[in-house]
Each structure stands twice: as C-alpha cells, then as structure tokens.
Design a protein that fits this description.
This protein has 400 residues and is α/β, with parallel strands linked by helices. It folds into 2 domains: 22-46 and 301-397, Aspartate Aminotransferase, domain 1, CATH 3.90.1150; 65-298, Type I PLP-dependent aspartate aminotransferase-like (Major domain) (Aspartate Aminotransferase, domain 2). Helices cover 38% and strands 16% of the residues. Strands 2-10-9-8-7-3-4 form a 7-stranded mixed beta sheet, with helices on both faces. Strands 11-12-15-14 form a 4-stranded antiparallel beta sheet. Helix 2 crosses helix 11 and helix 4 packs parallel to helix 5 (131-137). The longest helix is centred in the C-terminal third of the chain and has 16 residues, at 301-316. The N and C termini lie far apart (55 Å). The relative contact order is 0.18.
Length: 400
Amino acid sequence: MSQIQDPTPLFPSRLPKVGTTVFTVMSALAANHQAINLGQGFPDFPCDPQLITGVNQAMIANHNQYPPMIGISELRDGIANKIANLYGHQYDPESEITITAGGTQGILTAILCCVSPGDEVVLIEPAYDSYRPSIELAGGKVRAVSLQATRDENGQVSAYEIPWQALTAAINSKTRLIIINTPHNPTGMVWERADLERLALLVKDTSALILSDEVYEHMVYDGAQHHSVASHPELAARSFLISSFGKTYHVTGWKVGYVAAPAAMTAEFRKVHQFNVFTVNTPMQYGLSSYLADASHYLNLPQFYQAKRDFFRSGLTSTKLKLLPTPGTYFQCVDYSKLNIPQAKLNESDFCQWLTKEIGVAAIPVSAFYEEPTESGVIRFCFAKKEQTLSNALERLQKL
C-alpha cells in the first residue's frame, strides 16, 4: 500500500530553535501529576470583584465595539497621571501612551518598530523568553550578557548583580536597543537609582534605545521603591517603558498592558501596533480605567505580596534549600545544589521534573531563561498564590 504524502508545502521556520515554552511544559506536567503549580507566574486567587463590576458595566453600557487604535482616552489619561505621580515624568496620553494586548505584545511591537536586519540588541540573561525570538523575527542580532552570580563559601549562588563590564563591552555602533527588566524575572533582583545613572552614562553618546520591561513595578519590598526609566529624564527620552495590568491587578488572562515612550518613538511603535493588534479589548479598558482611578489598589500591592513572600520564605527556611534574596517580583529563587539527596546532582530541568513528579511541587529551572545551557543549581518558585496553596507546597517541600 503506497503511503499518502502530506500535501502541506514545506517552508523554512522563522524561529527554528523555538519549541514549546518551559512554562507550558511544566504546567502540563504539574496537571498530569496533581502537583502544586508554583512554576508558571500567575495568581490562583481572584481579582477584586470591583474590577469585574467595572467591566460588566462597560459591556452593559455597550462599550463593545472597536475602541481607538491607541486605547481609550480615559485609560491613557489614568496611566499618564499614575506615571507622573509615581515617577515625576509627564507623558502626553495622546501621543506617548499606547494600550497593548499585554506586556509581551508591547515588547514584540517595540522591537519590530525599531530593530532592522543587522542591528544589534543587547539583553541580559537570564531573560524573559520572548525577548530573543522577538529580536530574531525583526532580523536583529542578539548580544547577550549574563548577570553575575555571587557565591557563598559553599559555592552556592547567593545573589545576582548587573554585569557592568560585560554590558559596557557589548554596546557599540551597531547597538540599536538595550533591553532591561526591573524588577527582574526570574531572579527577583531590582535596579537601584545608581544603576540607572550608570546606564545613562553608557548610552549618553550613542544612538541606542532602551526597552525597559517593568511589569513587576509594584512588587518591590522592604520599604524600597521601584526606579523606573521614567524617573530618569535622559533615559526616558530614549526608552520604551512597558507595564502590565495583568500583573498588577491579578488578571493575567486579560492580556492588557501599555507602552509609554517619547512621541517620535511612539509614532513608529503605533505603525506596527495597528497592523499586528490594531486595538485592545474595549470593555476591559473601561473597567481598568475606572479601577485605576483609585491609586490605593497598586500602592498597597507591595505590602500584599511581601506578606506572601515572607510567609513562603519562612516556610522554606526549614528545608535545606538555600534562599536567594527576593527584593522584587513574585518569584523566589532557591539553590538546591547542596541538598543531601542524589537528585541534587541533576541539572535544573531534570530536577524540576523530578520535583514535580515525586515531591508534587512544580518549579521552573532558571537555566531555561538562557539561550545556551547555563547550569547554576537554581530554580524559581512563584509565590503569587493563596496562603493555603503555599502552605500545602511547603508541607511537600519538607521532604527535601
């Protein structure tokens, strides 16, 4: 019997190295093994019912057709006011703020609008997994540098630092864009004011642009503050600032974010935005705009998540996992390399699979945030969960 040939024409992949993301893989593994999913970064608790009410009211009021391509004015005005109040920079909501279908779409659109084939883009690894594919789709060349991992007397990772020497060496006349992320996913480190000053000096005599991924801006702890590129005039003048309502308001599935940038940069951004998204869910925008008017919701977020962080960290101290600092985000990294079990010798991916199947808790290997295999014995947990979820996970992790 002759074989039937597949009639689908073959074509070269635009992203030949890309497969299914580790987040999808680990979430599926967690579901298959009834494990507690502390891998993928989303809350397991509901948002404020007031936010749902605002969206419902918008639907009933017939805000169900296309909104303006750049986003409804009420939401853009609210964002401009928020940024001005928090960071002291006044963006023009008409020409400098665009509503996006989540932070990831904002990242892709910003890269596509300014990176041409042959341009170089500097990113700092470990890095959010959408950065590199977005650069490759634009035809850009990635220049990756790695965070410096400081180690304790036992050889375990104790903290991460910005690799200033490598970053300086990576910037040259071909550098079109530098991507920074603070608070940083996956390590939880945050940029200080002095770091922004140092970055400004690095790019001062260049034409390099900045893409600043600040989706965890309201998750900075212990009385510290988030230092946005918007708070630094020289950086604000060359930066795409990206943030996410999904992260801030516990509605990651809504996929609504925004990009703020100088008018000339925004004009180019919108040329791409209008053709890869055009516009964003109308009733969600109205619901968010009314909710954003009450600043207490995001001003109280550091306290809300710090309580979860402290609860989770306190429980982890009774395990043999080494806790890394978590000054920001809703992620806790730990070093498992000195556990007194055979599995401590596994690479990060295999350890996370074993942890999911045998211990019943899913985590993400930090090595997945690098292009080339980089093993440090560090994995990432998400603590954006109900206290009972964290408590159940901690009970299982005691077996380590």
